[in-house]
């Protein structure tokens, strides 16, 4: 193949090694390899045969990574030996002894440490330094004998568990196994003998000292002393050399055991690790020594349990009962310490990286001023240039998220209005009018503060500005009132009066004399009149024009007579326009009603007010927002009421403060695909399934009880009072969707994954649209600029592909199965969805009928078959297969046959128990940039993502399991990913480097009974191919 590629690149005539022709590569290269795999799968007898008698995918895959595959004529024949044994790279023998064999260093450390602690406790050491005493230290050195025995056990287990694979092992591996066993046997014999001899020498030395003490009473004592001295010292010197060599042989393994066993505390200094061991000895082992000695001294004359232990003459059973729980807890210490350390580290890591920092909407309000520099580099205050443009983009994205909440029935229409940020040209100057749910009750609080405040203006202003939401609410109310009066009042005199009052207010604020010039105690009355006026304006009833005039007159009199300490300038303005009214102090009262015509009242020759106001959607929204600022109370601070909506907003807001890579433009981002395997699970609940009562309760009723607030929002969106009013076809489909989107169905997963495409369209629109298009909104710009939106559609399809792997789609479609029709409905609703399935047809080859298998990718074309009245799908690609693809585990094989249809640099595999959200899809550009960030020596190949279990509300058990999963994918995987660097692949939200994995064995291991969890083996495979995993 490399030679053919060279000929192709150099312009030479290409001659294929497999006799080129139609389907020659399939017939001459792929099919022989497939036949070997297929025959080996038959040998497995559906996974029930012994593992050593058949080869799996890994065995054959490793062959192509070996040098043998480059030898001409070898191919797979070398993988069959003379006796017919299948050559395997690994033969699994399941046994409880595998627990010891797989973690032998950890168990060795546990056992040796326990032995050392028991010895130290038996010698009643008061300090760890006392272990250096010659007698104590020699007893402690017995741990090397135990280590030799453990090494012997481990060598025997290695031979036993690789025995069935002995004929396929190379000579070097066999020699290593035998040599390892021989060395272990030698040390198991030598060390106990030499240690026993050392004890004998110690006894001899003691005897020698006694003889020397009494040698003066015997003749020739000095010669005897010399002989004893020589006889004792020479063996001691020889033993010392052997002992040193034993230490040299075993200490590396001993220290490796220490490092491996507490690798989960890699960042802890060695002194603290030793301290943990000493604490275990002090707290667990030493308190048992005294009771053990007392129990052993007590003899047993009449044992009551004679039927179970008729010949027992000691208290060994009592000792076992005392020591067994302590030993079990001791061996569990590593897991306990790991859990403690994992919790502490995960919490500190989360604090440093601002994970989970925003858990409530109240915390979101406190974080309002921080910079979301990676998603959109904006600051929530007045800025200039590109940063101001990013403010408008963020507001646009926020509104799209809130609209999605409404379409998903997580919020009501009222909550939608309170959570939406108004789009206006002010955004491009950096000024944001915050959503009402963040400003709830702020204006009323500021009014109460001003009403009861005593002091200087500067202190009052500082107090209000301290809460920036309060300051924004006060400022917006003032500007909104000015805007309403400007639109409502058209009379010249009335305009001059209103303008004079506003000038007085602003001049007082400039001079810092507002509290002196105006009486703040009347502010609640003015607020009530403003509410009454705005309600009349929203009602827009022409018959209420007199009421509007009366409210305006009341507001004028309230301001000039009750609030202003000196309203003479305003009254002088009115007197100057009315020559027939005598200016006296008594006429000040109800002056606006005594002049002709009355102030704000229209006459035949002029109009003072423009009522009703023009029916403008933008103007009505601004008036309605003004009313909400005046009237919304503390209840709005709990918006949204739906717990799922609150969780999603908090999670989205938290992620904006994390260290995300800078998002590129959509046209420059990495492209990616999403793959979802599907078998026979529910696609969408039918109308009959909604109303069926298999267990006494229908699915529809159950969903209404589980999600009562969302059901209420659904009825509000459809304009129905209850489900009995849902009768027409469109509303019944809406009901089916509502129930299906709350179950574990394929339609819910597809809707969530298609948010990726919607997010790319919105982000591409923000990249390419000008300010006017952004102000028009997404829908308005789509109607007015068709060329732009055609580019957006093409760009989104170029960067994102979604494939549903449904092998049985062809057979279900031909048989008229409702599931196939539901799949077609999904494809018609989301035109970018692609479905991959396996087609099985009969063909006549050489006068013989045989089955031909093909992988096919189809899409919906939007039309209907005239005969069957069903939706029509169009074939895009067809790949002929060498045989039936289902020769291994179902789910990984389902993914393997469809992965060829995916595109792009990244791949995300999603199960049917998972969902996605628009606000998370907006961050996909940032996530994919992680593949380009250098972490250590190599960029990552698997990006780990946390998984949210949405079925937690179904039952208490589901709630517990969802929280258990949340704990593992957050705190647990943080530690595994960094700093331990041992995280693999545990769930389908993870994103793969597609090009890396499809060239290195794929992402789905599919051997029967071996690769039951293809997720974990994908992580193993990636790590063995020098891949790197991170947790994002």
TrEMBL record:
Pfam families reported for this sequence: CALS1 (PF25968), FKS1_dom1 (PF14288), Glucan_synthase (PF02364)
Keyword field contains Kinase: no
Protein name in UniProt: 1,3-beta-glucan synthase
Subcellular compartments: Cell membrane
Entry similarity comment: Belongs to the glycosyltransferase 48 family.
Catalytic activity: [(1->3)-beta-D-glucosyl](n) + UDP-alpha-D-glucose = [(1->3)-beta-D-glucosyl](n+1) + UDP + H(+)
Species assigned in the record: Salix suchowensis
Superkingdom per UniProt: Eukaryota
Main location, first listed in the record: membrane
Keywords: Cell membrane, Cell shape, Cell wall biogenesis/degradation, Glycosyltransferase, Membrane, Transferase, Transmembrane, Transmembrane helix
Enzyme Commission number: 2.4.1.34
Residues annotated as domain 1,3-beta-glucan synthase component FKS1-like: 1-77
Membrane-spanning parts: 107-128, 140-161, 181-200, 248-268, 338-356
Enzyme class: transferase
Topology in the lipid bilayer: Multi-pass membrane protein
